[in-house]
């Protein structure tokens, strides 16, 4: 699954699931079991009491009271038949599950949610051979655990195979989970319906009764019945189509490889496609609704390149004959890696040459790279349980870096990767963070695992390990891991094992090292021989938080010390010491000095250590190229020496080190370890900086300060900051062209600089944007505006009522989701409350503005100082209605909560938010994000108290 947890600016990056409670009828019709579920988390909490017993919906005892299924029965093969009716919006279906009994038992427990079971029978192998009819099974339903029990008349015997046949039916869901309905509008204004699945993590059970846990891998043979105006797609290619009486068609798909239930997928739609073939002969196709044909070509080119790359890199061929990538008009997450049938939001797959910007291209490339990586990490080798979801998501995020760098070097994806790490550090610096590996049992808890810690921190610690082991050794290790665990499941330890000993069978080994391994660095080799990878990496996966390395130079001696880095809790605070206890990391340190470019390495395993320098140097810089997941603080004159160097000749420090210095300095300010004026002084060298990613980083911190002041109405400071920004970056702003020219990062810098200039009211910027907007309106939306400035032009245009109304009209008409996103963002920047209210109403209604875009809309309005209070009031007043649209633990709900609250910075606001969360918890709705938000607000309050006077003075001196 793809989701970005960096809660930053853009609408593109938001994704989520929806939850609609299927009203659970207590009245069970005779012979029918309805496995449906009404309440979410609360019913899960108390259910693991060993003394407890479960009661089925009909009052009979339910034979199983655990959330996880028993191991007594395992599935081998599913024959699944589905017939959706896109007019009546329901489906009838049947399945035959071949099971293997491990331990003699009298019941079979399956997951099942919101489905109506019509009939269930059981055959033994003998029955099947002799064509004897199945024995009828008694079905009990336990909705609180989303389970059904099939009670068998006679015991099922160990080591024997049986066949369970179930007839069932259901409604196409209204949300984004299970087997659900999606709609799109044609150019001619006609609304069409399609049916699509999305199962991760626990929603396959909404489409067919199954063993819905990642460990229960099986083969699937799928048949889909459809009308002739539609097509059907599934994980595997179609082997035949049968024509039925009445004109219906039935597609039979080839049997899948062995895989987990959450990767099963099927779609009934009327989409068009473009196709190509990889060098190894895999047919790759991009599907989208018929009017979007011209937006599919970039995705095809990118997926062909990336699939070729991965096959070589992993040394394992993609095992299926085809791969389809489908743009779904209504989709919860950004994308989902179903094996052979990857589903995407339109914005994550479709590149419209007329309206997609360079950052849209970056995003699409990244998401395709992510989902293709999952075909190996996740699909071929799957985590045993959701507590280790980082093995899927951390790896997929990390592989984006490797594969996009190799296939699209012009995108300079390296520089994008910083934000992957920086986005999670803010969260990981709070006490409420969590370890990468963490128990998760209920569906809500499992959903909450899909967060920045699994995705971003996972990717960052893998990148750190790669830097430590060396690229080649690391690659060998993961190839070993993928080969060893193909079609199986793995745990953390399995990965560390494979990385410690990456010898493949046939290699001569000695002391855990492959004989053929000649290129490994000697220090790494010594480390590997001790087989310490697991020991090192568990300090990063089982321990929450991020370390701060404090360095003090004394002549040729460096004293280094590690502590847990905390933002919002200062070293002088009484609770600081207790929060440090028992935290210790094995940190693979790297450093370089002013006198040599050599990269020195040292593993810091204890709280303190000393290092000797070969010669006297003016400065030392730790965390070379910012590959390590730790922050560095230089005590004494350390920072001053580095700042002096930046001002004298910044090119003596590596570009990635310059980004790291800017980042660490501002984080240290938040931790109360550095004064704000020092961090600001560090940015004063930026007028000589020529690297766009670095300029963007520096600019982002200054902009953040501006927004903070603007929101709080501290107008003397915000006005001065505005003047400072426009003055300091004036030359850069004024030399920007309103075009799509230049390298990827120059284009991104242009978008940010011009957006900021217009937001800050820079007259030439507003004038140019207004001009382009009028021309665009006069051309009835036909004029091509350079894509990188499109959002800026729309945003300036949205400030007049006529412009705003015209944009809303165009929003409805546009068939480019890239354009729609830009328009929606522009509409959300209006200063008129009634317009913002109108947007929220449209978002709640879900027609003009799709429900899938509601969380992004709320996020965008919350970013607008004129809208922040509005959405906060709205969320509180409409909480129940929001919960009818989205699952409590979904990314959408978490986005809605955090985007409307985390910018608060006063004690009154903190109190207000606290009360709201307490009232939710009292109703049984609890999320980890509540604590994260409260800590964030507390941190903001402390930040202001400590740094506002400094900022005020610094601006007066520096303007
Ligand atoms: Zn993913």
UniProtKB/TrEMBL annotation:
GO terms for biological process: adaptive immune response; peptide catabolic process; proteolysis. InterPro entries: Aminopeptidase_N-like_N, Aminopeptidase_N-like_N_sf, ERAP1-like_C_dom, M1_APN-typ, Peptidase_M1, Peptidase_M1_aminopeptidases, Peptidase_M1_dom, Peptidase_M4/M1_CTD_sf. Its EC number is 3.4.11.-. The record marks 455 as: Transition state stabilizer. Zn(2+) binds at residues 370, 374, 393. Its cofactor is Zn(2+). It holds the Pfam family Peptidase_M1. Residues 619-937 form the ERAP1-like C-terminal domain. CDD domains: M1_APN-Q_like. Binds 1 zinc ion per subunit. Residues 75-263 form the Aminopeptidase N-like N-terminal domain. The keyword Phosphoprotein does not apply. This is Aminopeptidase.
